[in-house]
Automatic annotation (TrEMBL):
Record GO terms (molecular function): pyrroline-5-carboxylate reductase activity
Keywords: Amino-acid biosynthesis, Cytoplasm, NADP, Oxidoreductase, Proline biosynthesis
EC class of the enzyme, as a word: oxidoreductase
Source species taxonomy: Bacteria, Bacillati, Actinomycetota, Actinomycetes, Propionibacteriales
Record's function text: Catalyzes the reduction of 1-pyrroline-5-carboxylate (PCA) to L-proline.
Domain of life of the native organism: Bacteria
Protein name: Pyrroline-5-carboxylate reductase
Protein localization: Cytoplasm
Protein encoded by which gene: proC
Length: 282
């Protein structure tokens, strides 16, 4: 497809009409974040396949729910947040209503900008984003990459949308599968560790409520320590690890059970799955 000069479309600062198509976990995370950040409902349109879910969103947020094609025609920026497997069908549905200069922002894992562009009219700009669920509490981490018809203004619009719910970094698209494995799926690994530590506390005889409070505050405190001191995690771990002490005994077990190696292979598996998702569509 050939690049076309944008003559209409979103303006930096995010003041155009934004449509969110597919409002499940991640779509609602973005929608609620935009509203918390002060974006008026008048500037938002929602497209959602499940009628009962659409009704729930209308009641909860007072947003306008329209069909996907109307949303695509009316919006300056169309954010697509369906499962990767549903992306081809959604793009085929909205393509006739899109025009050069509009911006399509995809939050789907593994779906390349080339795949999206191949389904859309020439000159529609595409930005690929990998967000994560801590965006629900304004502590999200999003990485954004430009497609081939995307200019600085489009990238700035996508950046300002995601900045409503946390931090945003720009990465080359070739890094997006690794990003997905680290920060996209990352919250799930940390919740898995939290679950395991709470369960261990119960095994050690602590009431579940006590174990939960100890673990959650330890995770929050450790995250804050990492961010606020800027220290390398190795330094922070060494500060906790007294020679011949309790932490050294525990870390020895984690190393013996190859937990570090397991994290590496787990994230390689996530990256590889991300790589294959676009292929699942074709
Ligand atoms: N959940 C997460 O932690 C993250 C999810 N993502 C990406 O976000 C996307 C959505 O994931 P979730 O929100 O977790 O899934 P979800 O299943 O909770 O939400 C998808 C929503 O899209 C709706 N939908 C499906 N086809 C549609 C169509 N043609 N038109 C309108 N609505 C339609 C579904 O009814 C559903 O409400 C995925 O592509 C995923 O890779 C990215 C990063 C993190
Ligand atoms: O598990 C998934 O495929 C999505 C993408 C990153 C987090 N959740």
């Amino acid at each position: 497809m050939t690049a076309t000069t944008a003559t209409t479309g979103p303006r930096a600062g995010g003041d155009g009409v934004v449509a969110i198509l597919g409002v499940g976990v991640m779509g609602e995370t973005l929608l609620s974040g935009l509203l918390r950040a002060g974006r008026p409902t008048a500037g938002l349109l929602v497209g959602e396949k499940r009628a009962e879910r659409a009704e729930e969103l209308r009641e909860r947020y007072g947003v306008t729910v329209v069909d996907n094609r109307e949303a695509a025609a009316r919006a300056d920026t169309v954010v697509v947040v369906v499962k990767p497997q549903d992306m081809g069908e959604l793009l085929a549905e909205i393509a006739p209503d899109l025009r050069a200069g509009q911006l399509v922002v995809s939050l789907a894992a593994g779906i390349t900008t080339a795949f999206i562009e191949s389904h859309l009219p020439d000159g529609v700009a595409v930005v690929r984003v990998m967000p994560n669920t801590p965006a629900l509490v304004d502590e999200g981490m999003a990485a954004i990459s430009r497609g081939s018809h995307c200019d600085e203004e489009h990238l700035a619009v996508a950046e300002s949308l995601l900045a409503a719910t946390g931090r945003v970094v720009r990465v080359p698209e070739k890094q997006q599968d690794a990003v997905t494995a680290i920060s996209g799926s990352g919250p799930a690994y940390l919740f898995f560790v939290v679950e395991a530590m709470i369960e261990a506390g119960v095994h050690l005889g602590l009431p579940r409520t006590t174990a939960t409070e100890l673990v959650v505050q330890t995770v929050v405190g450790s995250a804050k320590l990492l961010r606020e001191t800027g220290e390398h995690p190795t330094v922070l771990r060494e500060q906790v690890t007294s020679p011949g002490g309790t932490t050294a005994a525990a870390i020895r077990e984690l190393e013996d059970h190859k937990v570090r190696a397991a994290f590496l292979t787990a994230m390689e598996a996530a990256r590889d799955r991300s790589r294959s998702l676009s292929g699942d569509q074709q």
